[in-house]
Structure formats: C-alpha cells, structure tokens
Design a protein that fits this description.
Distance between the termini: 35 Å
Strand content: 35-45%
Oligomer: single chain
Radius of gyration: 16 Å
Number of strands: 18
Structural class: mainly beta
Largest sheet: 5 strands, antiparallel
C-alpha cells in the first residue's frame, strides 16, 4: 500500500497526505536533519519494477522532487543522513538485474555521485549502514546474497574494509542506527540462510 503512518513515541496514527508516493517495497527512509524532512528514494513498485523517484515528507505532505541527476533505479539499498556532509548518502542496492556498487548523496536539491576507488565486495544488497559519530564516517555491514560477515567504512573519500576482532554473523535485511549518546552504531536482527536473528550488536 501507499499509506503513511506516524509514531509519536507512544502510539501510531495514520496520516492523510494529499499526495503520496506510489506503493512500493524495498525502499529506505532517512531523516534529512539539515532540511527537516524525511527522504525516500527508489524501491520496487507494484507491477512497475524498480524505481528511481525521489520524495520528501514534511510532516504533512509528500512532495516528489525533480533532481537534475538521478541515481539508477534500485531497491534494498541503505540510505542514511551524514551530519558531517549535511547530506543523505545511499550505497548499492539491487537494480532490475544484478547489483550496484555506487555511492550517491542528496543535498536537498540534487543528487551527486561520490566516486570512490573501492567499494564493498562482494557486491551485495539488503545490507545496512549508519553514521559513526566517532570517526565521522559511515559503517556498512554484511548483506545479500553472500551474507559475508564484513565491515566496510566510508571515510568520506573511499570505502575501506575494516578488520575487527569480533563481528556479528553475516546477514541481510538487518537494521543499523546511530546511538549518539553512547557514540556507537547499533545493529539489530536480520536474516541468515536459516533462522532469522534477534540479536543486538554495537560498533
């Protein structure tokens, strides 16, 4: 469906915007702190395949944006706000066929590709990433189809494979978020090749 729901910290309520994005799945949302809006990009539509549209939510209505540069259509891609860059950054995802290795950012008006010498390998989607308040970079972990238990770090110039002494098991469709009070990145859940995880990890 293309319903919009709001959570006030205690309960959920359904919003009634005049305009809404078409129904879809596999789409991320990120709160764009610099603009005070929620950003949505892409996903897979109902009978329409992967999408490349950009929408913002201002608390009342959805607005479709018309950037000059648009990332290729994709689904199951991580999207996160980067305070150090004051932009929302996305990486990878799944197009109509294959996978993507690119990194893009949104500045509230337009998209721009961040060209890097390296990128997370093996190529994956349904991974997740979050902002690291200590290093002012982005942490990306695991993903589908390999569910490799690896940690990649975007240092604002390039993607670097981080070697860690301890790591969660590989997974996909997990959730990661910044915990600013603890100066940590928190990971929860996800799906391996057998039983879904219900574990919590922090980086």
């Amino acid at each position: 469906t293309n319903q919009t729901w709001l959570f006030d910290g205690l309960d959920w309520s359904r919003a009634t915007p005049a305009v809404s994005p078409p129904p879809r799945a596999g789409h991320p949302l990120a709160y764009d702190v610099a603009r005070g809006k929620v950003l949505l990009f892409g996903g897979i539509g109902v009978g329409t395949g992967v999408l490349a549209d950009t929408w913002t939510w201002d608390g009342v209505n959805w607005t479709q944006m018309t950037p000059t540069l648009v990332p290729p259509a994709r689904r199951s891609h991580p999207l996160v706000y980067h305070p150090g860059r004051a932009t929302c950054v996305l990486h990878g995802g799944a197009p109509a066929s294959g996978t993507l290795t690119d990194t893009w950012e949104w500045n509230g008006i337009d998209c721009a590709q961040i060209v890097t010498a390296n990128y997370p390998t093996p190529v994956r989607y349904a991974s997740d990433m979050a902002y690291d308040p200590v290093g002012n970079g982005l942490v990306l972990f695991s993903g589908y189809p390999g569910a490799v238990s690896d940690t990649w770090y975007f240092d604002n110039t390039d993607w670097v494979l981080r070697t860690t002494t301890t790591s969660p098991p590989g997974r996909w469709d997990h959730t990661m978020a910044t915990a600013p009070v603890r100066n940590r990145v928190v990971l929860f859940g996800g799906t391996p090749r057998t039983t879904p995880f219900g574990d919590t990890w922090e980086f």
